[in-house]
């Protein structure tokens, strides 16, 4: 796996890990914020819903209480059979009917159990007496129960089977001057209208319900849950609020909140809240007690509706986008600051390893890698300089060795190899320019005797001296050399037969004279050949050797020149 893949993989893992940790922290924080926010919203919503209910009811309750205190009604309640009082009371009732919101009323008298009623359509005009309440009839039990309890005011959601209506009834007791209960008055609000106005107001995610002092559901958008005629039902048979919750802990929590609020007994602004599950969805429940009517108001906030999960998608999108941007930036930085310099360095090292000093462009970021590249560049420059110096030294030494390989170590003249090269060049030149050159072959006479009598070292000294005299006797552009042993060769170019002869004689004379001057007289024999263009080396050497042989055979210390026209011997 490449370094780039590893670094980017590691970076992605770190970012995802950091992102996950941030996400979890965010979730915890957002849950906390939502909880706090939800509690505040729940409390506000509870107060708002309570206010809406009370606002609607307070006027009706006030009117009902005013009606209960009406002297016309109270007098009639004391003498229900008195037609004058009855007529006056009914007129009074009818005047109240016009003021009630539902334009309906009821009056029930304790003494004879007569129940009077009229509605918005004035359906029972002149016939307000509807029926006689029967203590043994379950449908009428509410009346007798309220009389028994002696509660001055009561709200009751109840279908009236006689009248065929289901209403939220406002029941207010009538008391005479002695505070004796003489009857009951009130009005009924159409339940469907009331639910629509107060409870089921179409706020998405917000559910409002009202329960009575014992937790029995009184107002709820689903009528099936409403506990009609709660007052006459024994405990245990009521539709209480806990029916809405599946989790026993939620049931306990809600009932616990009702208990707490009961203990606080309508304390101003007292609201309890907590999380519950309704229909498998998390809700925040807010509960408040309404002492004016003795009910609790419960608001359920569906958090998934109010704060849908889809709200989080932009956050996820932002996270993913920032992840991609971060990776791209990271890749760019890694690429320019690490990978590209490292790859260039690797390429440079590869070239250097193959002996190439033409390094590619090496980026130098301002970091450790940049410093490493800088050191590498300096190192490669030093290596290049050292290598060049070594190469130059080797070239110089090779050249010297090559030169030495063509030089005779004893005399300093060209050796046989050197002479071979010069002769080959001259053969080519002669061929090319169609001119001849001269070749002399020299041999010291009786050198063996010199060696034998004076010693080998003395022989060497004589060889060196002969070399010096030879050099002095030829022209600067001629090529004298030692062929081997006591034999010397001189190549003369440019040359002609006369010059060849002249120089050959001069050499022989010079050696003879100079050696005599130094006290160890020696002589040499010289064979010469003027080489015409087109002849090969072997032929030249053979003819020059023959000329030398002729010179020796003729008595030594003489020159024998071969030309194309014949041979000529010059004695001393
Ligand atoms: N001192 C010395 N002697 C050498 C060297 N090379 C060859 N010789 C000797 O030179 C002698 C050459 O003798 P030759 O050329 O064969 O015979 P010569 O005695 O010169 O007689 P001619 O040539 O017939 O006059 C031999 O004795 C070799 O040992 C050398 O480098 N130094």
TrEMBL record:
<feature type="domain" description="GGDEF">
    <location>
        <begin position="435"/>
        <end position="564"/>
    </location>
</feature>
<protein>
    <recommendedName>
        <fullName>diguanylate cyclase</fullName>
        <ecNumber>2.7.7.65</ecNumber>
    </recommendedName>
</protein>
<dbReference type="InterPro" id="IPR043128">
    <property type="entry name" value="Rev_trsase/Diguanyl_cyclase"/>
</dbReference>
<feature type="transmembrane region" description="Helical">
    <location>
        <begin position="311"/>
        <end position="330"/>
    </location>
</feature>
<feature type="domain" description="HAMP">
    <location>
        <begin position="336"/>
        <end position="388"/>
    </location>
</feature>
<dbReference type="Pfam" id="PF00990">
    <property type="entry name" value="GGDEF"/>
</dbReference>
<keyword id="KW-1133">Transmembrane helix</keyword>
<keyword id="KW-0812">Transmembrane</keyword>
<dbReference type="InterPro" id="IPR050469">
    <property type="entry name" value="Diguanylate_Cyclase"/>
</dbReference>
<keyword id="KW-0472">Membrane</keyword>
<dbReference type="InterPro" id="IPR000160">
    <property type="entry name" value="GGDEF_dom"/>
</dbReference>
<dbReference type="InterPro" id="IPR003660">
    <property type="entry name" value="HAMP_dom"/>
</dbReference>
<dbReference type="Pfam" id="PF00672">
    <property type="entry name" value="HAMP"/>
</dbReference>
<dbReference type="InterPro" id="IPR029787">
    <property type="entry name" value="Nucleotide_cyclase"/>
</dbReference>
